[in-house]
Every structure is written in C-alpha cells, then in structure tokens.
Amino acid sequence: MKLFSRRQLPLTLGLVLATIFVVLPLGSAAEFSLREPLKNTHGFDNYTWFFVAPDFAKYLGISFGLALTSALILLVLLVPTVVWLNLGGSKYRGFVEFVSLLPLVIPVVALAIGAQTALPDFAQTNEVILAFMYAVLAVPYAYRTMDTGLRSIPLKTIVEASRGLGATWFHVLFKVIIPVIRSTVLSALFMTLALSLGEFTITSLLHWDTFTTWVTTMSQSNILGAIALSVFSLVSVFVLLLVISVFIRPTKSMVISEEN
Amino acid sequence: MSSTTLSLKAVSRRFKDTIALDSLDLDVAQGELVSLLGPSGCGKTTALRIIAGLDQPNSGQVFVGGENISHLPPNKRNMGMVFQSYSLFPNLTAAENVAFGLTMRGEPKRLRVQRSQELLELVGLPKHSKRYPHQLSGGQQQRVALARALAFEPDVLLLDEPLSALDAQVRANLRDEIRALQIKTGTTTIFVTHDQEEAMAMSDRVAVMNQGKISQIAKPDDLYHRPANQFVAGFVGQMNRIPARVNGTELLIAQSTATVHPLSEVNSGEGLALVRPENVVIQSLKGQQVEGNAVVISRAFLGPISKIVMRLEDGSEVSSVMTSAQSTEFLSGDSVRVSVTPGEYLLVEA
Asked: Is residue A108 pLDDT above 60, yes or no?
C-alpha cells in the first residue's frame, strides 16, 4: 500500500495524528517516570520501590481477583443470552441492545449511588459487589464483541448439526459453540479484564480499595513513583494482551469456508 | 446396519397463517431412499426437520422402526443429517468432525479414531483426516459431513439439499457417490431437493410435494410417465401444453385425431393436452404430400439430443426433443407437421 498516494493521504494523516495523540502523553509519562532528579540522570529508581511496598501485591491481587470474577460473571451472563438471541430470540434483540447500552448512558456516579441505596446490606459489605459493578460497566463492549462473533458463524446450522449428532444442550454450549467462538469470547473476557483492572470511579465512590485507588493514594506522596507505577501497569497489561492475541488467533475457518 | 423403517402419520405443521404440512403421511421402507421434491415453500424441509426433531409438529406422529419417537429431542433420535450449508465444526479436523457423533455417545477413543478413518476412506478422503474445514473444498466438506452423519450408524439418514451449494460437476459426481454409499450401507434415507433431475437420478421413490401435501409418491419412471395430476405433470420433466378438443371418443390435437386416453379428466369439449417433448413427433414436409401445421422457431443443440421449438397455427408453442442427428433437417422457418404419439399425453381441463 502506498501510504502517501492521494487516496491514502487522509488516512495516513489521521494515523499520524492519532499516534501522536496516544504516544506523546504516554512517552512523556514514561520519560518523566524515568527521571532521577537527585542524581540528575535517568534510571529505574522509581520502578523499584513498589515491588517491595507491602500493599503492592495485596492490591494487585484484589484487583486481579475482582477482574477475573467480573469476567466470569459476564461470561455466564452473556454467552447463553447472546446464543439465545441469535438462535430464536431475535425479536428481543432491540430490547437487549438498548439495555446493554445503558451503562454507557447512565453516569457512573448514578450507578454508584444506585448501588449504595438499592443494594441490601450484605451486598454492600462484601467487595465482590465491585465485580458485579465492573461487569455491568463492561456489558456494552462485551455484548457487542460476542454478538458480532456469533453472527459471523452459521450458528443455527452448527447447533442443529450437533443436536442431530447426539449433543445435549450442555455439550452444544461447551463443546461446540464456545470452542468455535473462543477468540470472540476471549476478546470479550480481556476487554472486561482490562476495564476492571483500570476502574477507579465506582471503586472510589463505594469506598473500596483496589490497585487503582492505591496508586492514586500513593501519587499524592510520591508523584514520580505513582507515574512509574501507572506506566508499569499500562505496559504490563499491553504486553499481556499482546501475548494473548498472538497465542489465540481468530478462527478464520468459517470465513473462508463460506466462500467455497 | 441398524437401518430401519420410517413413517409419518398425519403430520401437520402451521406457521402462523401458513400451513407448511397438511396431514402428511409417508412410509419409507428399510434401506429405501425417498426424495421429497417440490418448489420452495412446499413443506419438504419442514417435514425433514420434524423427522429430525429440530421442529415440532402441531399434530401427528413420527415412527422409526415402528416406535413412536415424536416426543424425543433431536439428540436422542439417532439420525444422521447433512445440511445444505456447510455445517462442519470449524474448530475440529475432518476426523474429529466425523467422530463427533461417536464422542457424544461416549465411545472409546480407539473406536472413534478407527471409525472416522473408515468413514473418511468410504467418502474418498482418507488423506484429509487432519485437515480443518477451511482447508477443504465445498465438495470435500459435504463428503466429510456425509461421513459424519453415517459414522454412528444412524437409523435414518436425512439429506437437506446437500448438493445445492456445489458447482455442477462436483454436484453430479457427489450425487452418484451418495447414492452408491447409501446402497452400500443400506441406510434408510430421506433426501430433500428442489432439483428434479437429482431426485429422479438418486431415488427409489420420489414424493412430489405441493402446499404441504404429497401430490404423488412413485418410482421415478412412473412419476415421469404416469403423473397423477397436472401439478406433478408440470413439475416433473418438461411438458407441452397443447390445446385439444374432445369429440366423443376422438381427440383433436394439433389438427390430428387421436383416441381419448381412458384416464382423461375431460370427456367433452375444450381441454389441454399435456405432452412430453419426446412424444411430440415432427414430420418434415419435404417430398411429402402432407399439410404443415406448425413452423420451426428454433433448434437448441444439447449434445446427444436437440430441442426444437415450434409455433402451432393457433399461436401456442410446442417443443420436441430428438437425437441431434435427426434434428439437423429442421431449420428455423421450416413448415412441419406436428403430431402426438398415441396415448402419450394427459388431458386436463383448460
């Protein structure tokens, strides 16, 4: 592709601008976090403290735990729903799409206050509530990802074929559908993971402590350290997603076979 | 083989205001291949889906080997099915696809591997066991789907237009292969198609369906030569519709006389004679003392045979087929004399 041909020029310009928009602040943050003002050099001093900080592992653990739980909740909630919508419940699709968009429309503050006032006490005193809230926040993205994935395969035929071959509904779901759309399910999962790991507003409003709130607290006393920590978490999540996307390639088989 | 008989008793299915199946009865003998043939919307696929358990009838029962299986879900029916669209599991290899039914039945791995290899050999793909569906052509995918449907020795094999997505050459080959395989395994088979040539070439019997009912079920030859009604006559094979007149025991057709067929629907007055192109006889006027009654419009060369289209004096068009060698003497614009082979027509009301 000629990047500078007349037709590609607007695209190229857009790409360059977008790259600057994303890379510049990140690069600046990274550069800033590497500064060592006392020695007047650059180095990794700001990156070493948090590995030994007593709460680092604890809050990281909490955040990962919550993220995994919310991903699991979404999986259990969304896979059967989306499969059902694509198999026979299509007349409810409009309604489900509307509901799935609500978390984007309703301000997070309203969600948090709603949770505080509406949920029973036992739910308010257990931090697992955060996993449910994260799951709600991730619904708009996860639902769309899964729906697109399921629409790209001849779901009805595959389900009927497996039923005809003797599969129970349990087998259909776990041995056929989920393996077939595994890359889609995984993208939805990692989207939820990433969103949960970085969530701050609801966590803070509901007065719970996770990795993000810990980083915020730390930044008030150690600005360089906090930025180093942010850069570190950003890079680690990026690497994690990269590794996953390399190992889990999308199933291209259906796309090709339909052309045959 | 565990193949057995299949019966449908008064099966009806309605979709809102449309009647897809109207008290359908069907009996299929053990090892028999019966085609359900008909235009789209005639209910043939609905019938197949009800047999498979993928759809529920509003009333009526399905029997396999004399046992009522109407209440059983599809996974308990022991039927192999091949779909129109490619239905292989994209994440499994050909061998794993073939073994799927056996896996669901809890068969040991050794048997699954052995059986899937056997089946892949049977459908002519012994070296493709490790390929994924996207690495196979359309015809190969349907072969694997067929192997998958046969691997667990189903009571009944259900084929839902399995050839319609394939190109002509592959289609013709696979058609013969499916039939050979069906005879070899002796599996009772229902074959749904809208392609009459396919149905005629493959089936022991063909059921022509129209508006949720079977118009006629018969051997291909009988269906062709002795259609039970106008719908079957028009749907199966090509049919000329020639205006005719009954006069006592005499039939006037294309200005020639013939004897009235005993099964004719019309006893007197105007009617329509349904005549197969091969029963339309053309006589050249060259060197003959006969009067022409039609003009040749066109001649289409179809390999061993050719089709000649003519216009009768009343303006209606009639086509005739003959060997290509015979057809060379007829050219566009020629006056000819057309007659009908005695007895080889069906007279219906105009």
From this structure: yes
